[in-house]
Amino acid sequence: MQTNELFNSADAIRPSGNDRLYCEVIIPLALPATYTWMIPKHLQDTVRIGIRVEVQLRNKKYAGIVRTIHNKKPDAFEPKELLNVLDEDPLVHSQQLELWKWIAHYYMCSEGEVMQAAIPSNLKLSSESILIWNEEYGIDFTGLGDEEYLIAEALEMKKELRLSEVQQLLDVSHVYPVIKKLIDKQVCFIWEELKEKYKAKKETFLLLHPQYHEEAKLADLMNNWAKAPKQLELLLSYIHLLKTEGFVTQPKLLKKSGASLLQLKGLTDKKILIAEKRAVDRILFREHESPQDLVLSAVQESAADQIKKVLEEKPVCLLHGVTASGKTEIYIHLIDQYIKTGKQVLYLLPEIALTSQIIRRLQKHFGQQIAIYHSKFNPNERVEIWNKVKKGETRAILGARSALFLPFSNLGLVIVDEEHDASFKQQEPAPRYHARDAAIYYATLFGAKVLLGSATPSIESYFNCIQNKYGLVSLQERYGNVELPVLTLIDVKVAAKKEQSKIALTEPLITAIETSLQQKKQVILFQNRRGYSPYMLCSVCGWIPQCQHCDVTLTFHKAKNKLSCHYCGTTYPVISTCAACGSHQFIQKSFGTEKIEEMLAEKFPEARIARMDYDTVKGKDAHENLIKQFEQQRIDILVGTQMVVKGLDFEHVNLVGIIDADGILNFTDFRVNERAFQLMEQVSGRAGRKDGKGNVLVQVSNIHHPVLQFVKEHQYEKLYHFELDSRKAYQYPPFTRLIILHFKHKEKHIAEEAANLMMMGLKSRFGSYLNGPAQPVVDRIRNQYIWEILIKLPKDAAMINQCKREIFQQIIMIQSNKHYRAVNIIPDVDPV
After folding, report:
1. Stronger pLDDT, 378 or 66, i.e. the higher one
2. The whole model's pTM is what?
């Protein structure tokens, strides 16, 4: 049902006479169901589906969103009235509400949690407490303390005070005890006000006074100018800007003319110029360049034609294209065609690190028709993009997984690039949704098509193609018929034996880096651990410093001179004395990106070296600046974590080194082989993208690992069949659906008992599908002990839904016992 139809259906049930009207409202809380409120008569004409309304729950006000409107009064309770309507037009469309409902059901969370994730923070109104003076109290303040007296006096004068004003008066942040005493003594009452957080950005525009719109009068003014030559120069600069740009802002005029604010004030005082405040966009798009002609190769054109044919018959198509095959050009070609038909396009990427490179390519073709949306934008910028998408002003959006929640009104195509990437799955907090799978459902609500793209597709997506559920188009040739890089394995056991310890940079890798630098080429080195040293070890007794809140070792960060927990973020001073034996002899074990960077600087002092990991690219523009520097060859060697793996396109890279392949081949996870192949194939794809003269060196101790042979031959299909056999034998996806139940509590035995109670509750019906309870590898995070139950269910929708219902029932039963009330039970559907 389209948006207008849904709104019309709501209008159709509006009451006549004395009938009452009710609405279900989603509020941003983890509630088991959406609550019902009564619509007062004076608001019945303004309440619509998708609009924000003010409601009260337990003496606190919330801004919720109307999900349904009906005339059926609840049997079990008397609904409260809505307090207010906050919008003239709906904030969200009906398709979004359907998506929220589906995510809440499928991923076992509440619609309030989905709303919390979906709506930009500045559109979620905040509640602020206001103290109201009690006129009946009088002016006898003798029974009040010093702080109470100060507030009472201010209240008697102003009649009301905001919480922030009370904090300023007392010059402290913790004011609640004082406020409580004033309320208890009936000096004042407390009232909650919902406050809009979004504020439009204002800028001063300068306009020529109407009396000088005629050129003759303006010329007469300038010809008879007697004094203030600086003001005349300023006026000439204004006229030049007006003619060249069509509008003049105060900052631009002052910068161009070199004049002062005082000189500008002289022109406004003389009523020659008028200063006017106007709302402006925070998102500054680059000026629309003349579109570059997109010329597809014969192979690309054939793939694009195949995709169009597949999408005529199927809702989803997978483009399996090897690295550097030119998938992005095909995406641009398809986006262009959909935009020309008036449709909107959503282009999802797993990492914001990728957006800076691709957005520059897309804006060359589409200008202001395309925008970016991700977590690095500030809240006000997100609101402005939200509104542009809702109004249809933005035709295409490029973004990370959160862009899925934007209010599209006419979505025609969804592109999910690097669809295999685990970053598409939200981990914490709820909703723990997978953006790829949610995007496929979202597209069905519009009758839109979905194109998945990857050089290393997920086993599940490829399986869906083989089962004829999705269409499949292969692009197995690099753009320009460039050859795939040559992959060489380096046995680190040999090097370690020679050095009597594990080493980071072997001689063959060092030699290859030297050769690349001599050829004026660039090098990318991949190490999947950040920091300097993953752990420190007492050389006397073997004690390893661990986080006080998590059961993990602390990573040494040399630049900060701190030990850091990569799970909870707590930092500690560097330890010099062993807590077990008192020794001062510590050795640093293994190596992270920071140490690799230092070693490279020692080996290649003339080379320009940079690091790309979570520690170095925290700022809004940090990703883009680093990528630009590498593109412009101002960096010779780039060392990094997974950020350097995904989809980046650098034409001067001819060498890629994987420092420690063992670290990605030895995880205890059923997807370990798939992930290792994807990582190594993706990172190797950064080499030789222009001329095909690319080399990939992989340092590994087990050179006979089967996955390494698949990567060496660039044979995804061999990996797929290898994985499919073992997954069928052990009942893992794509043959089953997984649900993991996490039990967290500060007491280990309580978490374990709750997990066992869940097992007992589910055993009678789902016993053969249950595994556990068991502790994960990291069994304590942020002082919470963790137990897990793994459920492997057949791909039977009825059984899966029944299992979810029983899990919810068991959670209610377990938490109804006060002994387990504090146990946090978290379902994770389709974990990655």
Report:
1. 66
2. 0.80
